[in-house]
Write a structure and sequence with these properties.
Length: 330
């Protein structure tokens, strides 16, 4: 029922936040009940009665005033204490991390783009929008942005943190149960903000290692490409040629495939080397199926208004060929 909310924590970091939230809610609820109770009692007990004259006038009760100053003060100090504790448990902060980062094999870099997430592993894997991690392992994530301020937030796995151009912030990322955890950009970053989604895929170590191995292969020795169901090898081959003919590689990298004039490693838009292995496309906008890829290529702006990917006015054959090629990148 709690779904992907903060109240369904899956990591020690998220648990610390959830506990803090529940504790402060209970304290607040207690205060409301006391105030509402006293207010109700006094307004009934001391209500105006017929024939009653002016009530006795009192000015100030020192003991009471000290009490209602000291009690909230102590309460706020206590809440401050548990808040600081939750911050320590949920975030590595800026300073303590540098030393730890150098030794941590579980390092990740997340770079915010309008409107997608670039994800780089210490092993060299470069992917987008879907972060695979092994269950129960703590990753140190370095976050930054190439354009505007974005904010990384996967409620079940930890705190929210900004991705700021020219600055690196750090986050611990961990999930203690296998599953897919949804997140989103939570800082307004332009037209495509609402469709800047991400997901954490927490899986057993063996599956994670297999995934990482597969991602490290430079994908298309073109002959190895297998067409998706319903498409032919000829269409895949035609798709490769179209991909090289259109300026796709000015923005998208595909390891093992270079077009004339394209940069060595384009990072303007998501790396497509293993595009077909992802669950969703357009930063979580729609599921990764051939029909959706075709719809996306036909008019990216229709699915994600403001997206920087142009509409190349592809005809039906070109759409089929490119879809066949992209979906075969596994
Ligand atoms: Cu990126 Cu909002």
């Amino acid at each position: 029922m709690l779904g992907h909310s903060v109240l369904n924590p899956m990591s020690p970091q998220a648990l610390a936040i959830s506990n803090l939230f529940i504790l402060t809610m209970i304290v607040s609820l207690g205060i409301i009940l006391i105030i509402a109770g006293v207010l109700t009692y006094t307004s009934i007990r001391f209500r105006r009665r017929p024939g009653q004259g002016e009530p006795p006038q009192t000015f100030g009760i020192t003991k009471l005033e000290i009490a209602w100053t000291v009690a909230p003060f102590l309460l706020l100090v206590a809440v401050f204490g548990v808040t600081v504790q939750a911050m320590r448990l949920s975030s590595p902060g800026q300073i303590s991390i540098s030393a730890a980062e150098a030794h941590n094999p579980h390092r990740l870099t997340v770079i915010g783009h309008q409107w997608w997430w670039q994800v780089r592993y210490a092993s060299g894997v470069d992917t987008a929008n879907e972060i695979h991690i092994p269950v129960g392992q703590r990753f140190v994530v370095a976050l930054t942005s190439v354009d505007v301020i974005h904010s990384f937030w996967v409620p079940q796995c930890g705190p929210k943190i900004d991705l700021v151009p020219g600055q690196t912030n750090y986050l611990w990322l961990e999930c203690d149960r296998a599953g897919v955890y949804n997140g989103a950009c939570s800082e307004y970053c332009g037209a495509g903000h609402a469709w800047m989604l991400l997901r954490i895929i927490a899986e057993p170590q063996a599956r994670f290692s297999a995934w990482e191995q597969a991602q490290r292969r430079a994908a298309p020795a073109t002959a190895r490409l297998h067409p998706p169901a319903g498409y032919s090898a000829r269409e895949v081959a035609a798709g490769v040629r179209l991909f090289q003919y259109f300026p796709c590689q000015s923005c998208h990298n595909v390891d093992g495939l270079r077009s004339n004039g394209a940069p060595a490693r384009a990072e303007v838009a998501p790396d497509l080397t293993h595009f077909g292995s992802r669950q969703a496309l357009a930063a979580g906008r729609i599921g990764n199926t051939p029909a959706h890829v075709t719809a996306w290529l036909a008019n990216p702006d229709k699915l994600k208004p403001g997206v920087h990917m142009p509409n190349f006015q592809l005809d039906q054959t070109q759409l089929r060929d490119l879809t066949a090629f992209l979906e075969s990148l596994r």
